[in-house]
Amino acid sequence: xxxxxxxxxxxLMLMIIILMPEAEHAKSNVFRYERxxxxxxxxxxxxxxxxxxxxxxxxxxVYNTPFKKSNQEMExxxxxxxxxxxxxxxxxxxxxxxxxxxxxxxxxxxxxxxKPCSTxxxxxxxxxx
Length: 129
Description:
Blueprint: H1 3-41, H2 49-59, H3 69-72, H4 76-80, H5 92-99, H6 108-112, H7 119-123
C-alpha cells in the first residue's frame, strides 16, 4: 500500500470518528423539532381560563392591540397621489373601493373556543416585541 493511500485512509477514518457524534446530535435535534411541530399543528378548543392561559403561554404577555377602522383607512390625499399605473387592469373607482375595504375578522374566542384551533392560530394574536 502506498504512503498516499495510507494517508488518505487515515484521514477518512479520522473524519468519520470526528463527525459521528455530530450526526447523532443532529438526528436528536430533528426528532425534537418534529415533536414540537406536531404540538403546534395539533388542534383543540380553548375556552375561558384555558384560552387566557394558552394566550399567556404562547404570547408571553405581548398581544396585538385593537385598532380603530379610521387608523387603517387611507386619506383621500394619500391615494390620490398613488400611482395607478401599478394596477393597469383596474378602474380608478375599483382601486379606491379596494383601499377602503376592511375585513371583519373573528376574535380569538370565535377562532379557538367555538371551534378548535392550533398553536399557530393562537400565535397570530400575539404582538411583536
